[in-house]
Write a structure and sequence with these properties.
Elements lengths: L17 H7 L31 H14 L2
Length: 71
């Protein structure tokens, strides 16, 4: 993970091996879910607009802001 520009709100996930691409684009692989129940291929689709986690950051920020701000 490259966090060098995190102060500007940009973080980059970097994978140096071709295995990550192969696993991502082939969801038919048998992913072990004992330690991570969400392990799967095409995981990024959940975070795209219309996905199940698309508003995660907004909800987390709102909850954090309410807690810190005493609202």
């Amino acid at each position: 993970m490259d966090c060098s520009e995190s102060s500007r709100g940009k973080v980059t996930l970097v994978s140096s091996g071709p295995y990550a691409r192969r696993l991502y684009y082939h969801p038919e692989y048998n992913f072990q879910t004992d330690e991570n129940p969400n392990a799967k291929g095409h995981w990024y689709e959940d975070w795209e607009p219309g996905g199940s986690k698309a508003d995660f950051a907004q909800k987390a920020f709102k909850q954090f802001y309410k807690g810190v701000g005493g609202v």
